[in-house]
Amino acid sequence: MRNFIFLFLAAVLLTSCASAQSRMEAGIFLDALSISQTGTSNFGLGARFGYRIHHAVLLEAELAYDYGLNFHEAFVNLANGDIVAIESTSIGVTHGLIGPRIQPAHGHFRPFATMKAGFIDFRLSTSLLPYSSVVSSVLGLRTSNVNAALYPAGGVEAILGPLGLRLEAGDEMYFNRGAHNNLRITFGPTLRF
Question: Where are the domains of the chain?
Fold first, then answer.
């Protein structure tokens, strides 16, 4: 009898949570970012938090860290243009974004669109750059590693009560001597409360 009462109360609670419009949403996600300037694909983890400001609009903020990945970088002699060295360089990425997400408040499969702005921070390992006679093939990333970012994206979220599963894809553009377009895909669970 005790188990039946517990299950009944849990079912009532889940039903009431599902029918009430949630004001906040939090989630974690796996992050894949393809960096066009280095030709690498970084993978990491992130978290997001959203607050409903209208029945179909959430203001959402997120922060992700993509683990360091090695790639080969060429160093060129300034005087004659010859390649001086090729070195294995490690790059890690931290990015933070905030902006509105437009999504219907009801339904089990909810498509959405978002436009966020923020920063992207590249961390590169040490290199030959202290020598004044060489130039890195990713010089812009080395001299200005925190860059402004703009992220238009879309996706779909599957909802069951207060739990959801979200897939998102977009173009995370960062601005460093011009705009650089980078494919970004995130996937992970969400919780509404």
Answer: 22-192
Q: Model confidence over 147-165: pLDDT tens digits?
A: 999 999 999 999 998 999 9
Write down the CATH number for the domain with range 22-192: 2.40.160.20
d(CA 73, CA 121): 19
Name the token pair of 156: 């779909």
* Separation of first and last alpha carbons in the chain: 29
Distance between CA atoms of residues 134 and 63, nearest Å = 34
Whether 127 and 137 have beta carbons less than 8 Å apart is answered as no
Whether the pTM exceeds 0.90: the reply is no
| Contact in structure between 91 and 38 (CB atoms under 8 Å) | yes
Which of 31-45, 47-61, 72-86, 105-119 comes out lowest in average pLDDT? 72-86
Q: Across the chain, what does the average pLDDT equal?
A: 82
20 C-beta neighbours (distance < 10 Å), count:
11
Map tokens 């903020």 to a residue.
Answer: 61
Q: At residue 189, what is the residue type? A: P
Q: Which positions ≥6 away from 17 have C-beta within 8 Å?
A: 161, 162, 192, 193
